[in-house]
Amino acid sequence: MKVRKGRLAVFSFLVVAILAIVCTTTGNIWNNITKGLDLQGGFEVLYQAEPGQKVNAQIMKDAAAAIERRVNVLGVSEPEITVEGTNRIRVQLAGVQDQKKARELLGKEAHLTFRDPTGKKVLIDGKDLKQNGAKVDFDPQTNQPIVTLQMKNADKLADVTRKYLGQPMPIYLDENQLSAPVIQSVITGGEAQITGQRTVEEAQELADLLNAGAIPVKLEEKSSFAVDASLGADSLRESLIAGLYAVLAIFIFVIGYYRLPGLIAVITLIAYSYLVLLTFMLMDVTLTLPGIAAFILGIGMAVDANIIMNERIREELRVGRSIPAAVRAGSKRSFLTIFDSNITTIIAAAVLFAYGTSSVKGFSVSLVIGIIVSFLTAVALSRILINLLVRSNILKSPGLFSVREDEISDL
């Protein structure tokens, strides 16, 4: 008797613990999930390599990496930068406050050159700059912001400054002259300076651009669009409301039709939803509208696993098995069916991820995560809960499984 009461106590404890954890931590988890462009606003731009250039997969990959380094200057979390086809790069920046500044930063080539006094011959190229070798400093005499540069080859800088001593050495960013300092002495330490910045912010932006490096191919903007933050918030709110209605409809159906197993299914679905959101947060998944659609679809697939198992249990009850025997047999018979259906969905999601665009990839990632988590909840957790109730010996009526007495065979 004590063992039976203990199992009922364990069941009660698990249910209360699940609901308590979900209620107290879901809000914090949701706030820490990265939202995509369509949920929090931002902008998207599609670049294409200008015709007549030598372009291959590696060059486009390097260009995407250079763009990502520039995006990091903006402080954007989880930018979506993808190479499409053989000559296009799509950039999605969610939560960008100053879209004009972002577009200007992405569009600049940032090719630094030190030239002879005529401005025609390149003496030192930006490639000679050390990685992250540009930083903001201040002129000790005027206290004006300057950008200091660390060169890879100090001897090269010394030779150039020795040759052109007393003459101006214009510094260009792309084809725009930044300054034309006169070489006062031979620079032997491998450190150069760029003056002429009016503010610290202007100097910092220049240093960031130089550290990001030049994009290895000229890109032209093919299309772009912006999503206002308020529109993203509206989309998120409407999506959540639609999802809530869908989930409530599922809960009402499974409880009304399957009785006690339906109630257990609802508990496991709550646990499923919580674990999926937690996984999104831990894996730094960027949640988009297609991702929310996949999340809601995953709830439907998770409840489908419960329905398959419950139907198998009901079939066993109808042929005259006892409740414990029906639960064991029904759980065993349903497993392969649930496994096969989920494997086929994972295969489809893998194909979508391999060949789809960024939004489709987000949908497929969310779908796969949902399927994996459903095995932990809709299959494992639901079996644990129902077996605890069965072994506590309080389930004595087939009616709790929505099976009428006249449906049970005498065989």
From TrEMBL:
What are its GO biological-process terms? intracellular protein transmembrane transport; protein targeting; protein transport by the Sec complex
Lineage: superkingdom: Bacteria
Report the subcellular localization: Cell membrane
Q: Which GO terms describe its cellular component?
A: plasma membrane
What does the record give under GO molecular function? protein-transporting ATPase activity
- TM segment ranges: 240-258, 263-283, 289-308, 335-356, 362-386
Q: Where is the SecDF P1 head subdomain domain?
A: 120-217
Q: What positions does the domain Protein export membrane protein SecD/SecF C-terminal occupy?
A: 218-385
Q: How does it sit in the membrane?
A: Multi-pass membrane protein
Q: Which Pfam families match?
A: SecD_1st, SecD_SecF_C, SecDF_P1_head
Member of which family? Belongs to the SecD/SecF family. SecD subfamily.
Subunit composition?
Forms a complex with SecF. Part of the essential Sec protein translocation apparatus which comprises SecA, SecYEG and auxiliary proteins SecDF. Other proteins may also be involved.
Q: What is the recorded name of this protein? A: Protein translocase subunit SecD
**From what organism does this protein derive?**
Lihuaxuella thermophila
